[in-house]
Amino acid sequence: PSLCASTTLTTTTTRKGGDVVVVALFFSPNRLSSSRLCAFTSSATTLDDDDDDDPKREEVDGFSVFPQELPSNARDPSKDDFINDATSPPRTREQQLEYNKHESLRDWLGRQSRKRSVDEIVVLTGNIHRGSEILHNAVYNKGTGFNHSERERLGVRGLVPPRYFSIKEQAEKVWQQQVAMRESNAAKIGRWRHLQALKDRNETLFYRLLQDHVEELAPVIYTPTVGEACLNYSRFFRRARGMYFTKDDVGHMHSMTYNWRGDVKIVVVTDGSRVLGLGDLGAHGMGISIGKLDLYVAGGGFDPQEVLPVCLDVGTNNKSLLNDKWYVGLNSQRLEGGDYYRVIDEFMRAIRHRWPKALIQFEDFQTKHALEILTNYRNDYLCFNDDIQGTAAVVLAGVYGALKVLGAKDRSEIRNQKFVMCGAGSAGMGIVSMLHKAVMKSGGLSEEEAYDNFFIMDNNGLITNERELEFPREAAVEPFAKARKATKELPDGASLLDVVTKSKCTALLGASTVNGLFTEDVLRQMGEQNERPIIFPLSNPTSNAECTSEDTAKATDGRAIFSSGSPFEDAKSGVSGRVMRANQGNNLYIFPGLGLGAVLSGAKTISEEMLVSSAKAIADMLTEDQIRKGCVFPMIKEIRNISARVAVRVIKQAAEEGQAKRSVVKIIESDDEHDTKLFKYVKRAQYVPEYRPTVFPVEEIRKTVDDY
Fold first, then answer.
1. Active site members
2. pTM
3. Which three-class secondary structure state does DSSP give residue 571?
4. SS3 for 390?
5. Facing residues of 120 across strands?
6. Is the peptide bond before 55 cis (omega within 30 degrees of 0)?
7. I need a labelling partner for 150 at 20 to 30 A (CA). Which of 174, 457, 599, 700 fits?
8. Contact (CB, 8 A) for 244 and 336
9. What is the pLDDT of residues 231-274, one digit of tens each?
10. What sign has the CA pseudo-torsion 298, 299, 303, 309?
11. Helices and strands (DSSP H and E) totals, the chain
12. CB proximity list for 692: less than 8 A, separation 6 or greater
């Protein structure tokens, strides 16, 4: 408290043997402002490995104190005592005696200053140049995009090349680098790392590039490339992003949330237990949360400063990770039972208390937990599970699109479709549950009649009423199993080929993560019994897809209506030469718009009807030309407008349910049949990756003040 405003505090913290050493030097401009210079450490340790060289110490309140009395007229040792060059004035005899008196302290301080930088924590002081700080801050850095006024007033003049480039020109340059990597057949993981390096330098430019080329870069940023990135996350780790909550943080999660900057509109959280069908990846799951939020920003228009990726590190059962000395997560077995759910519950309460209006999206939780977590919180929190609900909504949108390709007059003809679902996990059951409700509501069938349109398969074959189910993991399967009576023709455990043949199904869906499950015989049978079979291999990444577009086109003579979870190229039939459109049923069509609509409406929960409305909005955006080409989804390059249209439907649904805030209801009440005002409201809320001005001309400032 006695230090004057001009006093400088320099602090060096050194870790020795698990304890912390703090050396504090208080300097005023001309003399030491304190008559004592002390170094503190735990009484059980010493300040240096060589005890003989240390000055004698005395115990004070459990600390070892090294006293060195300095006279009030002693000069600053950083100027004279430690530096003896030609410009220093000669010392008097008294000064030399004083110099010798404190030689032992200088020796010790000298040893500390020669320690490796890795052993020290440097506390930055106010004299660090702000220009360098700006250039190393990915949020504010513009590189060569600083204009003349900004360079001068922010202190970056001379620190960047002199020529100015707009963000459009910068994005074009980086895109050419990506194109060169693609044309040289560089691995997609290399392109992913190139983009992550850009994000670490300049976030605005990263999102501008992603928005301008989302159709090609989405598979690089997210599936399937992000799967390989997650497998190697510890080795690729360069810069911390998001937040990690562990089992050791129980009791502290609420206070931890205040370590995060500013407001948060959306949180994507995973426990890494089932990443893209690759299994338990523990803390490596952070990669999927980061990738997902990149698409929320590029596709939905969320501000990147208002999104939060989270990994709940509750351990891992992956032996290869536990044996990896570079693994960045907790080196312990995964929590189960009550301990696991206590971590989930405290995290949910912490997020709601810190950011009560934030949307929470669950990502890649294993089946036995995913459904229970969603059930526990969906009615009390603004949350949804993208693997269960998002995937289901995008498949429903694809089925509605397929009906248009088939020439259906309206959505009611969904009642004529028979579905075989391969995969009884959280994603598969989420899909058939939503399709079942659509068959009832749009098709006009009763609940029992609608169940007859579905055949559920798992790794043991067809699931019927004779199957003994495991609860609560397979609770969602129970109503479908009870409705499917085992027969002589189709007994419990019947093979996929038998089910396809004897059920006369029209749609074959895969969420099994079993590569090649849809064999040539199965695909050929689908083509023989349907003029335009619907074939959706939905598993991610590409290595887990049930079949490829090429396999499907060959077996069905290019007549199939095809949509996959991972990207494939359009394929040509070898017989007729017909080109089959390879659609990608990417959840990107759903989650950005769903999240945007939920946040803008002020909704308290995500209802099933909001998801169905999202699916209908996507199918309604198909043009006649796209339908003629076999497209079941609109072009992904229009994702910003698609997300805006989805958000409009979600907001209107929220208003119908009484969940929308009053200001939004007023817009809806005064709007026309085309939702012109509401669409404009959504578009204005979307983040645009442009360089924001950081310096304003004096004339503009004066004008603003005068106007005020």
1. 222, 292
2. 0.79
3. strand
4. helix
5. 14
6. no
7. 174
8. no
9. 999 999 988 999 999 999 999 999 999 999 889 999 999 999 99
10. negative
11. 29, 20
12. none
